[in-house]
Structures are given as structure tokens and as C-alpha cells.
Design goal:
The structure holds two protein chains of two kinds. Chain A has no helices and eleven strands. By secondary structure, chain A is mainly β. In chain A, the strands form two sheets. In chain A, strands 2, 4, 5, 6, 9, 10 and 11 form a seven-stranded mixed β-sheet that branches. A four-stranded antiparallel β-sheet of chain A has the order 1-3-8-7, with no helix packed on it. Chain A is globular, with a radius of gyration of 13 Å. Chain B is elongated and about 50 Å long. In chain B, strands 2, 4, 5, 9, 10 and 11 form a six-stranded mixed β-sheet that branches. The interface of A and B includes residues 41, 48, 99 and 104 of A.
Amino acid sequence: GEEVAQTPKHLVRGEGQKAKLYCAPIKGHSYVFWYQQVLKNEFKFLISFQNENVFDETGMPKERFSAKCLPNSPCSLEIQATKLEDSAVYFCASSLSPGNEQYFGPGTRLTVT
Amino acid sequence: KQEVTQIPAALSVPEGENLVLNCSFTDSAIYNLQWFRQDPGKGLTSLLLIQSSQREQTSGRLNASLDKSSGRSTLYIAASQPGDSATYLCAVSSNAGGTSYGKLTFGQGTILTVHP
């Protein structure tokens, strides 16, 4: 597609439940990036993919967070056993190459209660 | 560790005014710098991308400059309009031996309000 698509728009989970977020990059873009926005404007890089391969996972929390990009499927970000501090907006972005412009999706707002 | 700072945190101007938003970064070894706008409750819209070898980029009423050696970028908005009201974010990707991993480090943003 012409835009990065993210689903769902909103997700509410009780503490300890699993959350799974999806991202469809712009068609033809090989790179996918996940960012977490907390406290309004604090963006944190989580992980990036080159096609289905992990490209950079330096921002990914060691526990509870995992991500995948499989062929012919949307990319996914999964949080096992959510905590209150996971409440944030999760953005996905895609680009042609790591040095190119990144195009962001509308985000998924995760609320952990 | 790269740190990005944006000044001012908030700016309120009357319609028609020209304005400048500032962004500074601590590590000059960047690959590129990108300016975004974010409307309330929405995603980021890319405005301009400046590669580290470039000095400026222009798009319509927007002009972004980059001084890599001093670790600064400015976003100039000409003849501001109420529709320009949004949060403006700058983000840098670091240069890793002549290439980039694409990971963006963001500033805290400048909240711009343009009143009629």
C-alpha cells in the first residue's frame, strides 16, 4: 500500500495479559522500524527489520518483548505479560533503506490497566 | 550516546509570522536528520530529510538547515498559518562507519500554536 498501516488503533489489556500489534509497511519498503512513544514526546527505538531478518534490536527490552516480520504477512510486535509501564503509543515506520526517509504509521495506543 | 534537544519547548505566534525552530545534537557523526510534524493523536508526518553532506532542504514554506560540525539544525517556517499548529520533532540517525542502521533518536519536540 501507499501508507504504513497499523492495527489495532487502540488496545486495552489487563496487567499480565499478552498484547500483539501489527504493522504493514509501504509496498516495496524493505525496512521496518518499531518505536515506543511514552509521556507524549519521548520516542524510544525498539527494533528494526530488513525484510524478515532482524536488522537492529539494540532497543528491544530483553524480556517480554518479541517481534517478527514474516514473508507475505504483516510485521508484529508482541508483549508477553504486559505491565503498567508498557502503556504507550507504538509506532511502526518503513523505508527503502536505513538511510532513507522513514514513513510512520498512525500508531497503536496500548493501555495496560 | 546521542542526545537531541529542541528549543523552544513551545511557541505561540500570530498568523503570518515567520518562525524558526531549533534542534541540537551532541554527536556530530550523524547520517541524516529528519524533521517531522505530529498532530494530536496522530502519527508522524515526514517534512524534510537532510543528509549529512547537505546544508539545507526546502519544501514549500519550509526550509531546514544543517550545520553538522556544530550539531545544529533549524526549521524555518515562512508565513505561518493556523494549519501549521502541531508538534514538530527532529530526529537523527547515527553514522556507523559510513552507513546507517536507521535507528532514529528524537528530540522532545516543539509545540507550535499559530493563532488567527
